[in-house]
Amino acid sequence: MADAEVLPREGIRLGLTAADKWDAIRQCGAVLSELGAVEDGYPDTMLAREKSVSTFIGEGVAIPHGTDESRALVRRTTLGVLQFPGGVDWDDQTVNICVAIAAKGNEHVTVLSALAQILMDPAQAERLRTSSSVEAVYELLESIGKDL
Known about the structure:
Blueprint lengths: L2 H4 L5 E2 L7 H14 L7 H11 L3 E3 L2 E2 L15 E12 L4 E9 L4 H13 L2 H9 L3 H13 L2
Parallel strand pairs: 1-4, 3-5
Antiparallel strand pairs: 2-3, 4-5
Helix pairs in contact: 2-3, 4-6
């Protein structure tokens, strides 16, 4: 799968605000829908996933994604990146970046691994949280798409 399909630049949204984590997750689902990556019911499964287990992974990052059963609603594996500079309360943690995942198979495991590599470098994690450039975010995360 080509990088552009997995991490389309139009799926990188910077400078957003969200009332709470549920609003942020809805926005993530909306981006995946706008990109044509998922069927209509997928965003609701992202909310269901969060109710069962938090998608917060540390360093100000959450990875909202659907339930295992929702894979049938995924048209193609795609990532969306939503930045919330003011932060979103996520179960007493602050999230500044949501990496929305629509995965047809187990690609979310590869995404987690690649994200972990990026987040282990505090300077890269900070750039991801604070960047005002879609291109800079794309360049930081494009390696994830190459691994899928």
